[in-house]
């Protein structure tokens, strides 16, 4: 996902404010919880995104629902989004907040694709190796894709390391297609 530039600006502003108050972890958790709530509750999402519902009424409902349940910083941030009509950016802001948090805490997220599920020991060994190579804490998400046939495809830090059997076969097919064979039949 590549968040909208406006979502990135809002996320950066919230992250910097949270940092000034040493609340990065708490605010990130509040952002994730609120976004998950919107994902799970279609009626709430429709209410907040509806242009027919007055913004002041939305703000009153948010205050009733969130008073004492989220930090003042995040509550005022949500009100700002309402006032500016930026409610549609909630998920993108969450994504960008997570990215900023990871970067600020020297964490990298890796997606490891394999043909079969990797064992916890294999994932831990891979995590340790990637952490050593990248000098960062690494969080791994293992996805299954049988079409790679075997091996691994690792996406980390904007890079793709493709050690899949599918990739090796494709490369071999390409090399063989370009090779010139001389006839040995007389």
Which terms summarize this structure?
Peroxidase, domain 1; 186 residues; single chain; 2 domains; alpha+beta; Glutaredoxin; elongated
If you had to describe this structure to a student in words, what would you say it looks like?
The protein is an alpha+beta fold and 186 residues long. It has two domains: 5-103, Peroxidase, domain 1 (Orthogonal Bundle), CATH 1.10.520.20; 107-178, Glutaredoxin (3-Layer(aba) Sandwich). The protein has helices spanning 5-20, 24-40, 42-49, 55-66, 72-84, 90-104, 120-134, 165-178, and strands at residues 107-114, 137-144, 151-156, 159-164. Strands 2-1-3-4 form a four-stranded mixed β-sheet. Helix 1 (5-20) packs across helix 2 and helix 4 (55-66) runs antiparallel to helix 5. The longest helix has 17 residues, at 24-40. The radius of gyration is 23 Å and the shape is elongated. The relative contact order is 0.11. The model has no long low-confidence stretch (mean pLDDT 92).
Strand order of the largest sheet: 2-1-3-4
Measure the end-to-end span.
59 Å
CATH architecture descriptor name of the largest domain: Orthogonal Bundle
In the CATH hierarchy, the third-tier topology of the largest domain is known as Peroxidase, domain 1
Radius of gyration: 23 Å
* Count of distinct structural domains: 2
Total beta-strand segments: 4
Strand content: 15-25%
Identify the overall geometry: elongated
| Average of pLDDT | 92
Note the total helix count: 8
- Secondary-structure element order, N to C: HHHHHHEHEEEH
